[in-house]
Amino acid sequence: MRVHDADEARSTLRGSVVAIGVFDGVHQGHQAVLRHVVNLARQRELDAIVVTFDPTPAEVLAPERAPKMLATLSDRLREFEALGVDEVRVVRFSKEASHEEAVAFVDRVVVAGCDARVVVVGEDFHFGRNRQGNVERLRTWGETRGFTVSPVSLVGDEAHFSSTRARARIAAGEVAEAQRVLGRPFNYRNVEVVHGDARGGAELGFPTANIDPSPRLIRPALGIYAGFADLADGGRYAAAISVGKRPQFYEDGSLLVEAYLCGFSGDLYGQSLTISFLEFLRGELKFETIDDLVEQMHRDVKKAEEVFASYHE
Q1: How many whole angstroms separate alpha carbon 299 and alpha carbon 126?
Q2: Contact present, 283 and 226 (Cβ < 8 Å)
Q3: N or C: which end of the chain has fewer CB within 10 A?
Q4: Domains in the chain, start-ordered, CATH in brackets?
Q5: How far does Cα 241 stand from its chain's mean position?
Q6: How far apart are alpha carbons 131 and 21 in whole angstroms?
Q7: Per the confidence metrics, is the pTM higher than 0.85?
Q8: Alpha-carbon radius of gyration of the chain
Q9: What pairs with residue 91 in β-bridges?
Q10: CA–CA separation, 191 vs 94, rounded Å?
Q11: pLDDT tens-place string over residues 209-268
Q12: Could you list the active site residues?
């Protein structure tokens, strides 16, 4: 799969079917749209191209209100490639770019960059300065620029597949529900293991891998989760994952994401791994004694192993 900035010279030699959007999380609704784009491109012997944005318009124009992301750009690229997309053009959005007229965006990105023959967007898609671009204007511009427009809408059960819905479920700790929206477990992919309190192994008997996901990404609700960890060497382990502030040891600790990898022994510092969330187990608690905490951790690990044993991709 080819990846270019939106302003790079056209690479397709045969025209394209273009999908435009952020596609945060590449959830099941996105997947259905992109499969349609790829199938249409194959039928017409065209390239399937995705035009996406990073950072997103909301992050640039209203950072205080912008929702946290479900996935990084590299995560999205990985999913696009798995769906058969031929090329991705990344719009590096900025405040300056927000002043661009919608028709100028079409000429620059859709026509000059992609040689579009079909453009696929959501039926409520708006773009360009003051959101002046919409489906009807796209159709009008396409008539003189050689492309048609295919708006898509999600109806029935498909309407439940939205980035907003996935974010809400994750923020509430309902990661199993989020998985139904995304079509896969919510995860933090290829994040480096960093140093934490060094308390888990020495004091509690449960050494944990501490990770520091991008601050752009959403965090699940505070609590303990069952999930699994994928290592760079291909190993996969059941994991008990904590998202919390460690109230047993701090009045108001910093937020930490850490995972105990069941059955793993070794040093993970400086390595990258992927942490996936399968099921919420319990809220974060402060126990009467450290022994009580350790007893609960044993139960958490046992439950995490049971949940992972029943997981099928």
Answers
A1: 50
A2: no
A3: C
A4: 2-160 (3.40.50.620), 186-309 (2.40.30.30)
A5: 19
A6: 14
A7: yes
A8: 22
A9: 53
A10: 26
A11: 999 999 999 999 999 999 999 999 999 999 999 999 876 777 777 889 999 999 998 889
A12: 258
